[in-house]
Amino acid sequence: MHLIPHGSTLNPYLSTPRNRLARRLGLPSEALRRVIIALPGFLCRDKGLDILESALEALGEHANKLNIIIGGEPQGAIPEWNRDNVYIILKYLTAEEILMLSALSHAIVLPYTDPPGKYAVSGILHLVISSTKPVIESRAPRLVELQAYAPSLTFQSYNISKLILLFKK
Is the dihedral of CA 94, 26, 78, 61 positive or negative? Predict the structure, then answer.
């Protein structure tokens, strides 16, 4: 067996001021006032929005130190967020916009679940790793690269306690 890496180019927006990126993404300046955790990509049931919501609930007051930016095109119903530190961009994000969101974030979270019988790969992983930010992800099969090379940044799907510990770092 041979491993053939297909690499990622460095995110061209890393040196762009965060306030400029936020304006281009339609985010208010308040979104930049705390540690920013982003969840980009198509928004569907298996993206783990419920896992992220449970983790924020379990964090209690610590959750107030974070701003969560969820961005992407809805692929079905998504949960309602009743938090003033969650910002949602409900639209298809181009690769350029995903790079901008990744550049203004401090970390990316991908709490995916993989429903039985569904086989997929994550197209977003190679975009977000180009930003040189921590990527916190579940151990879903479609995210196998990070499990293999950075297992300390991964957690079992629905293992809220591990995700919380990663948020507190």
Answer: positive
Residue 132 CB neighbour total at 10 angstroms: 13
Q: Which two tokens stand for residue 46?
A: 């298996």
The residues near 148 (Cβ < 8 Å, ≥ 6 apart) are: none
Note the pLDDT tens digit of each residue in 110-146.
Answer: 887 776 666 555 677 778 878 888 888 877 766 666 6
Q: What would the two tokens of residue 158 be?
A: 């629905």
> What is the Cα–Cα distance from 14 to 105, expressed in whole angstroms?
10
**CATH homologous superfamily for 18-112+121-168?**
Glycogen Phosphorylase B; (3.40.50.2000)
Rounded to whole angstroms, the Cα distance separating 110 from 39 reads 6
